[in-house]
Amino acid sequence: MSTEQTANATGSCLCGAVQYQVNGPLRSVLYCHCEQCRKTSGHFVAATACDPTDFHLLADDGLRWYRSSPAAERGFCSSCGASLFWRPDSADRLCIMAGTLDRPTKLHAIGHIFVDMASDYYRIGDDLPQYEQNDPRAWVENGDSGNNH
Ligand SMILES: [Zn+2]
Ligand SMILES: [Zn+2]
To answer: pLDDT (tens digit, 9 = 90+) per residue, 77-100?
Structure first.
């Protein structure tokens, strides 16, 4: 039996100065409409998450961290400006902006969170569940409490 770990997923920023690999499972995708996600991405975000111990950077030349709240930092590429990661200080998970994953992701979206903070120029047009904040029910699928956004 090989101990070699196989990448479950790979991803990068637009310019390639940040590249990563995930060797474990990825959570289903949540759409986050909070103000921080909107201000950093230009719209609402789609994010998956993994166990930080399964996450490996293959290139980090461009990676910078911005402290976006007292409880978390956001990883972005200082070269191309891509928004890539959200990392809580609790380190219980690493959130990854789903659009930075290489296709096929084999993931699917399961809900919207922080819809009470959504902007006013769009409507949520799908029938996925909507939660006002980071409702724990949105995380039930993976048994993740996920309430420290
Ligand atoms: Zn980049
Ligand atoms: Zn958010």
So the answer is: 999 999 999 999 999 999 999 999
CATH number at 24 reads: 2.170.150.70
Q: How many domains does the chain have?
A: 1
Indicate whether 3 belongs to any domain: no
- 18 C-alpha to ligand 1 centroid (Å): 6
pLDDT at 3 over 60: no
The Å distance, Cα 126 to ligand 1 centre, comes to 31
pTM recorded for the entire structure: 0.88
Tokens 């978390």 found at: 72
**Nearest ligand for residue 77 CA:** 1
45, part of any domain? yes
b/e map 118-142, b = 16+ CB within 10 Å: beeeeeeeeeeebbeebbeebbeee
* Domain of 111, in residue numbers: 9-136
